């Protein structure tokens, strides 16, 4: 007997490699290399904030640098839709990689304004790729959204950890923070070259129905709020976690290692959580459980940052797996790659805009209070907001534009 129909196809796939043809594996490898670059620009800079302070880069400039990623992701991400409509998803992603690599190469050049400009350019490239990669996954691997999302977000975490753990040693070996930052442009170039053969003239969604605005869909808004809260957690952690540990007595290098531990601890969860999410009818409980770990991590940092340093780092890393779950929802809650890109652009653009002030506000609160207790306590409270948004976003319904909803109502009425 067949089971009752659901609003989306079941996601209980066999092992990923056994179901992807050779051409698909090449695309998958290229996507993994792209993902390696999607946080390196952020974590590598966060690991060097103490070095920047010693080099004369002021606290205000550092606050701007820590806020630039989410600001760029909010402002630039929406441009990915225009690029997709003009060039196709694949070539739009190539444009994103060119911009990213140029930014990584630019920021170590002499002068603080160049550092800020290069960071902005690199983050603009990441913003475009953030929106485009979920659409590529939906288009290239429509029946494997969960496993492929898990694979590329795990690769993203590896890149994040590498940026956090290796930048300070690279700076020591090369004789300064500038070459330490500049070496990461090589990884961007590798990803660009790997994706180049797949940047074909068009994409499958070029002739398909274009994604329509989703501003009035409550599920789309719940996903957007969920994306905003998890983004705020992530970028506060990547920007300020080394400083929290440094103020608790850790050396700069040890603090960077603890950030890397947090990211590495999340890699298995980043891989497994999207697969679990794809098999669940409702993802709310999964999001609540992961968010509880995040709340415990920030509570521990408020109460005993040195005594439980490794534990708090691990909890924050595993709790951050809400991120790949949200990315998986982009595909699960839509029916076409165009709709996936539209939901991705809405959730990431608006979500990052809502989260943009987080790292800056945490820095200001730290300066005002002279400690990390109040910022960490507020982050614990934010976990409750994330749980509420997760239960609403986790409902098994597809997002619908007002135009599509009206057409469905007219069709129903004609029957």
Describe this structure in words.
The structure is a single chain. With 415 residues, the protein is mainly alpha-helical. It has one domain (22-408): Up-down Bundle (Growth Hormone, Chain: A). It has helices spanning 16-19, 22-36, 40-46, 49-54, 59-76, 79-87, 89-106, 112-140, 145-174, 177-182, 185-195, 218-247, 252-279, 284-303, 309-319, 322-332, 337-355, 357-369, 373-393, 402-414. The longest helix has 30 residues, at 145-174. The two termini are 29 Å apart. 57% of the residues are buried. Residues 1-14 and 201-209 have low confidence and may be disordered.
Q: Which SSEs are present, and which pair or pack?
A:
Layout: H1 16-19, H2 22-36, H3 40-46, H4 49-54, H5 59-76, H6 79-87, H7 89-106, H8 112-140, H9 145-174, H10 177-182, H11 185-195, H12 218-247, H13 252-279, H14 284-303, H15 309-319, H16 322-332, H17 337-355, H18 357-369, H19 373-393, H20 402-414
Question: Gist?
Answer:
The protein has 415 residues and is mainly α. It has helices spanning 16-19, 22-36, 40-46, 49-54, 59-76, 79-87, 89-106, 112-140, 145-174, 177-182, 185-195, 218-247, 252-279, 284-303, 309-319, 322-332, 337-355, 357-369, 373-393, 402-414.
């Amino acid at each position: 007997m067949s089971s009752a129909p659901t609003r989306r196809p079941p996601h209980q796939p066999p092992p990923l490699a056994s179901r992807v043809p050779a051409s698909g594996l090449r695309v998958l490898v290229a996507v993994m290399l792209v993902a390696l670059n999607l946080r390196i620009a952020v974590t590598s800079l966060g690991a060097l904030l103490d070095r920047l302070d010693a080099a004369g880069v002021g606290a205000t400039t550092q606050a701007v640098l820590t806020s630039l990623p989410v600001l760029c992701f909010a402002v630039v991400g929406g441009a990915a839709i225009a690029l997709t409509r003009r060039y196709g998803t694949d070539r739009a992603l190539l444009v994103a990689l060119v911009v990213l690599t140029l930014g990584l190469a630019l920021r170590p050049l002499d002068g603080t304004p160049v550092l800020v400009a290069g960071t902005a350019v690199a983050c603009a490239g990441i913003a475009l790729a953030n929106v485009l990669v979920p659409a590529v996954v939906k288009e290239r691997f429509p029946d494997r959204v969960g496993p492929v999302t898990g694979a590329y977000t795990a690769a993203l975490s590896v890149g994040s950890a590498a940026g956090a753990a290796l930048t300070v040693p690279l700076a020591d070996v090369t004789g300064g923070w500038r070459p330490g930052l500049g070496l990461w442009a090589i990884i961007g170039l590798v990803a660009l070259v790997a994706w180049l053969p797949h940047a074909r003239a068009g994409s499958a969604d070029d002739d398909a129905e274009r994604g329509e605005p989703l501003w009035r869909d409550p599920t789309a808004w719940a996903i957007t709020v969920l994306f905003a809260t998890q983004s705020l957690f992530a970028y506060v952690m990547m920007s300020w976690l080394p400083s929290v540990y440094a103020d608790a007595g850790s050396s700069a290098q040890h603090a960077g290692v603890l950030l890397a531990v947090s990211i590495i601890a999340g890699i298995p969860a980043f891989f497994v959580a999207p697969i679990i999410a794809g098999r669940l009818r409702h993802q709310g409980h999964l999001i609540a459980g992961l968010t509880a770990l995040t709340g415990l991590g920030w509570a521990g940092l408020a109460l005993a940052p040195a005594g439980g340093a490794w534990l708090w780092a691990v909890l924050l890393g595993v709790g951050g797996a809400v991120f790949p779950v949200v990315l998986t929802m982009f595909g699960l809650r839509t029916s076409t790659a165009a709709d996936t890109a539209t939901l991705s652009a809405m959730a990431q653009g608006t979500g990052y805009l809502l989260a943009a002030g987080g790292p800056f506000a945490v820095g200001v609160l730290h300066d005002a209070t002279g400690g990390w207790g109040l910022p960490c306590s507020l982050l614990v409270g934010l976990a409750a907001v994330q749980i509420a948004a997760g239960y609403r976003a986790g409902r098994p319904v597809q997002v619908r534009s007002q135009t599509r909803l009206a057409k469905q109502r007219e069709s129903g009425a004609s029957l």
